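Input chain follows. Return structure tokens only.
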Amino acid sequence: MRLRDFGVVPGDLPPGSNNAITDVPGVRVGHTTLVNGDGALMPGHGPLRTGVTAILPHAGNLYREKVAAAVYTLNGFGKATGFEQIRERGVIETPLVLTNTLNVWRAADAVVSYMLRDNPEIGIAASTVGPVVLECNDGFLNDLQGRHVSEADVWAAIESAASGAVAEGCVGAGTGTACYQFKGGIGTASRRVHDGEFTVGALVQTNMGLRAELRVLGAPIGRHMLESHMPQPGAGSVIMVLATDAPLSARQLRRLATRGALGLARTGTVSHDQSGDFLIAFSTARRFPHTPQTHVETALHLHENTRAIDLLFQAAVEAIEESILNALVAAQTMTGRDGNTLHAIPHAELGHWLAHYRLIEGA
């Protein structure tokens, strides 16, 4: 189930055909989901409630054909890799991989191995490679110390990446994560601007927020659900990925990424002290060869003193907001280690309050 299944129409801009990040042509998403074992935590053995999500900007060789990118850190209590190189060079050259906190470095190593397989010149006849891996802490449900995500799991997520509809909720890197003290996980959405000339897509991995903060399209829904199976509050994180086919430079993509944080704010959270809140944005409009054949080239560039840039900003805000709410609505109740449980948001109760605040058409 997704937010729109309640009859809600979030935002003003139209979504793409799948209302997903894969509506940006060429973008693909893959998941590896790891669920195994129950009962008491046995560090190094389980239970497992974790996984990997991979996002590929195009179907070609990303090392040889990079894409423009930018990053933005809203709150830096997290373990992202590859950000400094993106800030310096303005491109990404590997799949984007999301996983859990203590598996970041194993996942990064797996990405390097994957890139070496297809690019044996790396480190010999060519320069090195910068893996991009981001995370949320799923330790409330998962054996985090066990670092159970393997190289094979990372490769499987990359190689299974596909266009079309994207699985949401308790899948991939969102398998064990929360959202406003409900079960959360992976969510996605998209927006079209200029009569479909450009698309902005978003994908999020949620693990943030206190129940009382939760707002759904402006309504303080969370305040009405404080007695509904609420675990103890803890620090969390959120990873937000934006893709577009608009011809944006790295500088313009950073501007887009910062607006994505406004979409997070619309859902209520204040970005807590121990939250790792990261945004990454990339454009598929242009590919940058690892070994350019000329010193100078001519390329399309979006003017900023037009309505176009404002609509892209709006699209980023709306897509991030809806992605987070889709993750919340799609997730199902899950019990993990030590009997710890994250309950799904009650759909009937959510529908009641959406009607109460007249957010459902005709209510």
